[in-house]
Amino acid sequence: MKPIPLSDNWPEQVWNGARQLLDVPPINLASLVPPGFRAVVIAPHPGDEVLTCGGLLQVLAHHGHPLQLISVTDGSASHPGSDLWSERRLSVFRPQESVEALRRLGLPLHSLKWIRGGFADSGLQEREHQLSQFIGRYLRPDDVVFSTWREDGNDDHDAVGRASAKAAARAGVAFHEVPVWAWHWPARDEHLLPWHRARKLRLDTWTVARKRHAAHAYASQLQGDPGIGLAPTLTPVVLERLRQSYEIIFM
Asked: Which terms in the Gene Ontology molecular function aspect does this entry carry (predicted)?
């Protein structure tokens, strides 16, 4: 697994240091999700739907595309060893944060098809086959599937990417990957990203603002547990990355 430097002591990370970002070709919505097709977004943990493609979700909703969100886990293992944020508390709290985040994105919650997988947080690679079968049950021929990149550097993200790719291949539907933590690798590792597959979806100012507002709905991820030396997941540098006026998608 690629190490993920979440510390704010990494000023030159891929997201703000990679020269290739300037050369990524743009893509329009119709090329990503053709008219009449449904978009399926598969999130390993609550919050990943915003960090991966919170902008894309807004654009899709604005253009009336049907949406399906699959939340694989409840994210309850995000604060290991914490009494402040115990797994029992997080299993309830994190899905509630997702509801608020999607509301802040302006998504039509009354018509959004939202599947909660109930898989245990962490260790998804051990249940990858089962997860792929689960995802496949919810796919149909007019879908375009988006999930985390198979080499993102987080075991759960990688496993969900692989499982989603296999399910999409069996269903014969398009599959695209979105990096999350790979953007926070040191800039010296920029050559490890598949730039030849990268496309840039441009976002306007309001879409970016709503995406950042939605990320702040994840209060549990904005807080660590100082008592046990646990840092927050959504550090200032992660939130700063969300100011980017585009999202990168690997085709």
From this structure: hydrolase activity, acting on carbon-nitrogen (but not peptide) bonds, in linear amides
How do residues 14-67 score in pLDDT, each as one tens digit? 999 999 999 999 999 999 999 999 999 999 998 999 999 999 999 999 999 999
Q: Where are the domains of the chain?
A: 14-76+85-250
DSSP-derived secondary structure for the chain: ------STT--SBHHHH-GGGGGPPB--HHHHS-TTPEEEEEESSTTHHHHHHHHHHHHHHHTT--EEEEEEE--TTSSTT-STT-HHHHHHHHHHHHHHHHHHHT--TTT-EEEEEEEPSS-GGGGHHHHHHHHHTT--TTEEEEEE-TTSSSHHHHHHHHHHHHHHHHHT-EEEEE-SGGGGSBGGGGGGS-GGGEEEEE--HHHHHHHHHHHTT-HHHH--BGGGTBPPSS-HHHHHHTT-SEEEEE-
Q: In this structure, which topology does domain 14-76+85-250 adopt according to CATH?
A: Rossmann fold (3.40.50)
pTM of the model as a whole: 0.93
By residue count, the chain amounts to: 251
Q: Which two tokens stand for residue 51?
A: 């960090």
Question: What span, in angstroms and rounded, lies between the C-alpha atoms of 127 and 109?
Answer: 29
Which residues sit opposite 39 in a β-bridge?
67, 144
